[in-house]
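HOLO CASE FILE
Compound: pyridoxal-5'-phosphate
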Amino acid sequence: MTATRRMAPPKRLIYGPGPSMIEPRAYEAMSQPLTGIRDPYFLNIIAEIQAGLREALGTMNAKTFPIPASGSGAMETAVGNFVRPGAKFLVFANGHFADRLAAMGTRQGARMTHCEKTWGEAFSAEEAEDAIARDRPEVVAFVQGETSTGVYQSGRAIAAAAHQAGALVIADCVTTLGAMPVEMDAVGIDVAYSCAQKGLSCPAGLSPVSVSSAAWEWLEKRAEDSMTWYFDLRLLAKYFEPPHIYHHTPSPPLFYAMHEALAAVEEEGLRQRFERHRRAGEQLASGLTKLGFEPLVKQPQDRLWHLMTVRPPSGVDEAKLRERLALLNVEIEQPRGNQLRPQAAAHQRRRGDAVADPRLERERQGDKGDR
Ligand SMILES: Cc1ncc(COP(=O)(O)O)c(C=O)c1O
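Model generated. Tokens follow.
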């Protein structure tokens, strides 16, 4: 069957929390010719990706490169390299992905502590300072864009308090990179990891990791090997600098896609891109609120701009609503708990202001649209 039938995947409008719609340049790039892993052309593409990632992450870190995994692999890389067995590891837990970080810490044999917060709320500076003063952790982790709740947490107060206590700071930037400010150096993040398939609009499979010089020094001095070989940053890093020592076989199409996605970010301008997402998010929030949806994140300043979590109006069955959107080829995410997660459809609208898809608007007004 595979020999006789050509694939024809449906064209969806993917407005869930990830994957996002693919940047058209990234799609095209993936069909370009492959090179060897030390071909000067490919090494130059990698160097340009590293430069683009530094820009988007807001860092000067030399150790900035993509690893071969989705965001969870990058999370495992951060935890596996920087959380030693027996280390005291504090996770700021206000959502599903913070819980995943904590689960990974437990598997590494860390002494876990949690600072818990109601889902849908961000941590205040006082809460961060108190938790760190109380627990005296060696490593602290937080999620900058908690996809499961829609909360943004810059991490400034967490990082400042952690550094005062001599702790390393890990930040999950899976949902923020390319759509909202990460500002790794300004915030004081030691280890940031992200993904390809959200704010960068690439397919999943390569995930950026960036490590500060202080954290890298710590890693170089780590006495025992980390328990993971594939995600061992000390080994992985050797490929990204001369003499480019083989570690694993990279996938050129994914690197090409990331190169073009970062080129699109550079062309648009990071500030303009953030502004586009901010405006789109505000419009989506205001439109949905008018329709009777209730934002899960009560404080507008704590909301992610490009991902919104809402409770449907009473009497609206969210599963049926998603079914109707699916008939229009629009995908949004099913709830974790009692909320929906439509992403602000900003990447389709580089220059326009409208957020709601016209077909959604027609649907709202009773016209079933072009099915
Ligand atoms: C905040 C956050 N961290 C980690 C992950 C895991 O990433 P992946 O699904 O690419 O493994 C996700 C995925 O949605 C996420 O939103």
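CASE NOTES: The longest strand covers residues 88-93. Residues 17-18, 70-72, 75, 97, 143, 145, 147, 172, 174-175, 195, 204 surround pyridoxal-5'-phosphate (CB under 6 Å).
CLOSED: yes
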